[in-house]
Fold:
Amino acid sequence: MIKFGTGGGRGLIGEEFTRENVELAARAMVQLLTDEKKTERPVIIGYDRRFLSKEAMYWIGQILASHGIRTLLVKRASPTPLIMYYVQKHELYYGMMVTASHNPARYNGIKVFIEEGRDAGEAVTEKIERAALLVEEEERFTEKLSLEELRASGLLEEINPINEYLDDILEKIDVQAIRNRELRVAVDPMFGVSMRSLNIILATMRCETEILHARHDTLFGGKMPAPAWETIQALRNHVMDYDYDIGIATDGDADRLGIIDDKGQYLSANDIISLIYYYFLEYKGCRGPVVKNIATTQLLDNIAAAYGQKCFEVPVGFKHISAKMEETGALIGGESSGGLTIASHIKGKDGIFAAALLIEIMAKTEKTLSALKQEMDDRFGSFYTDERSFRFTPEGKRKLEEEIFDRMHLPVFPCNERKLSWEDGCKVYFDTGWLLIRFSGTEPLLRLFCEMQDKVQAQRINDLVEEYYSLRKMEAYR
Structure:
């Protein structure tokens, strides 16, 4: 069964992610394009460096092209934002990317992008899921032509659009200001696809650059390809040992990032989004709201309010951020898991563009990241987020769903509750912070997020939730 979550369709390689299911998803896309009468424009497909990603791209392309749909395959492993950019720039109806983003190496998946390069919303993914059921039940098979025949016919073409994507980023960045600073940058692509793009951008900006973990490793060095504090210690040590101005880490498909500053401090996604928004308001004189998801910091609310702007909150899933940005004319949108974009760029998250923006911020303000973060915290307050994940069997998940979301049983909290929301999981708003309890849309995990101004208080509230539902005892495996 083809099923899409908040970040595309993902599954375990060899179980949910198989050639049969990949081809089924491709046939569902053919059905969708046919039903919508959108077969006259090509579909672009990219892939990351995961196991079977390149092969899966060809499996999809072969199905689409055999059904008469012109298909563009990206020649090299590429960032997800490149595919989104190409769909937007060339006014395509759809694009696809074979990736499981920041998930563990045993996962792979497919992302779908719609017109203007945005993540496919539920209306589209539900159509794909229904189409998959239809083509599977009716066994509508079209004989697959060989790749050689499809290339000769012009229905299948291999392209390398990286330069136009990188040129677009460089046009939006003050390259000369960065050249004048001669910054030293360490990069950790986490064995993912950002190496080439960041290397070209940083060389163009005349930054002294060193790249760690650049080789192709489908196991990602035995770690999750997610730029969290615990996974980028090698980058942190490199920044400190060799006196770099910044360390940049990107996830497996380069749509998210994490940062090590000049003092070796980890800047979370919350810090990064807030810094960029603050830079636009304070140093560039821009005005406009910001959009965040429900798991993202209250600091953005404080910054927006200080400049007479609004902070809009949406459910998890970047498609919700993109839609709200367009509706409200927001300057920037982002999420605590590491993705962000600005209004003048693509309508999806882009870790490469965000990295370039941070380097511009250091160059234009002539300040270190640590100094800028301290300046921001002094003005708007500092916050601490305690985040935890618990993995369950399907039976364990059903029990928790019944307890939390059906019966709505919650513990008694040691602080005043202002508001309670069940829109996407359960979010409790306190006078001094908030708590979010929700199941992941991409992995079999229950996630707890608690943000407070005090670290100990945030940890205590999550401890209380953990104990109340006996989460450690119920957990299937870690």
